[in-house]
Amino acid sequence: MRSVTVEMLWEATDPQRVLSERFGFGGGGEAAAWVIETLDRHRGIRVDAVERIVMSDHNALAWLHTDAGRLLAKWSVAPDRFARLAALARLTSRMGERGVPVSVPLTTIDGHDQLQVAGVSLGVQRVVDGALLDVADEEQVRSAGVTLARLHDALAADGEAASLPGLGEPRSLVERVGGWLERSAHAPEAPYSLLGELLADAPPDDLPTQVVHGDYRAANVLCSGSSVVAVLDFEEARLDHRVDELARSAVLLGTRFHDWGPVSADVRAGFLAGYQSVRRLSDPEQAWWRILVLWYSLAMIPAGEDPTGWRTAALGLATERR
After folding, report:
1. Taking the CB of residue 7, how many other CB atoms lie within 10 A of it?
2. Are 148 and 216 in contact (CB under 8 A)?
3. Longest CA–CA separation in the chain, Å
4. CA nearest to 231, candidates 213, 209, 253
5. Three-state SS for 237?
6. In sequence order, which residues have a C-beta less than 8 Å from that of residue 183 and are 6 or more positions away?
7. Is 142 within 8 Å of 151 (Cβ atoms)?
């Protein structure tokens, strides 16, 4: 087996050491051989080449050339996640059936979306041609908003989504924002004070909850031209308010894997306009949108150096609201 490139997605640590200590492989060639043998045995897929392996936490991804086209294999060695991963694979398949742009998992020989074997949970999907969402492209930003609204509709209509393991129970919006205000002293005074004023005047937060994606941002949205071609990685799916995910996504839309930074007011507005072209926010949701966008922006300000400009972005929001 030829040498295979092994990388870390975001951790600043030695990938060869991680491959050995977390995944039990002596090198990239050994890991590639395991992928090749496992896909042949359990999925009937011949792997011609393993391009590279990328790791994050207890997950690994391998890009493959196969007789079924270019595929992506993703596996976990964290047993406590296996039931959730299997349920998420089934959910992703159902989202594809509902017309949401996702990379639908390929099934095993015996018809399962997710394979559990020898202490590993493994999924395989097609590589979708596209590039990560570019927030400098107005059409892509609007398309991302449209797609999130359609995804929310599909998740709300899915009868099995609410039974996913590990969804948790959402805290009230008042508790979340109010609790943060009580314990955060490093935020700039003007937007911090404004957030308190907006929260004091907020409408009731008894908005309906549903399953949401949980991490909808550039790192998980693939685009081609002006269209979203795939929403990736449902592993952070949770129960929450639609408007909370909408606001969080608007603030973090441009973030990928390193050096997270804010987006402009125009990007947030374009994203919201795309979303509302499918589903209008109610008056209470409109009020909470303003509160949550400011809160998430403030919460992103680091206590020390601020190289990507979150403090400036929050100050700009305070100016917009006055």
Report:
1. 13
2. yes
3. 64
4. 213
5. coil
6. none
7. no
